[in-house]
Amino acid sequence: MGWLTVSHRIGCHDGVWNAEEHVCSHVQALKRVNYFSGQLLTEAEFRLEQEYHLELRRRHNRCLHGWGVVCGLEVGVGQGEITVTPGFALDCQGEEIVSPAPTVLCAPTERPVTEILYVLIHPSEEMIDPTSLVGAGTDYSRVIERSHFVLDSKDPTSAHVRRRGQWEACGKAHGVPLSRLRWIRRRWRLDDRYRRRWAK
After folding, report:
1. Domain residue spans in the chain?
2. Residue 145 in this model has a pLDDT that exceeds 90
3. Distance from first CA to last CA of the chain, Å, rounded?
4. pTM confidence score
């Protein structure tokens, strides 16, 4: 009797395997450095080592926790400004987005073209700690992970699906929506009917 080996079995839903629908259909094999005595280590090896661990974390977040708010990031609207509390979220690529301090955004004051705005949070990075190079010039020795906020008339997650209590990540880079605002009586107000998405 022969043995049948199934190398890729992904996307189980209601007893039917559908690789196009499931987040695990985007999982790829990872490559890491194999260290040995006498090996010449360059910038490329250290970068690969970092990327390996970063992608492990992204894959874990994407496949096990989905995307959405983890904690905090509450949105408030005042006269001419939008406030966001500190907090933590996961985006569809599995990136961890941290906003460590309260944030104040300026709300548009003129009558908008669209009467709906979404408050989105995006991950970002900043190069810090400039260091003098041997010979001439400078470069940066550290990268700090930051976040930034965007007001957009479209929700980038409107077509996303929820399965088994979890919002599945699409794997693409886009912001995480925190709240929806509506233009009512010449000012922006929170839409109480909007339900934010939570990571599992």
Report:
1. 68-190
2. yes
3. 43
4. 0.82
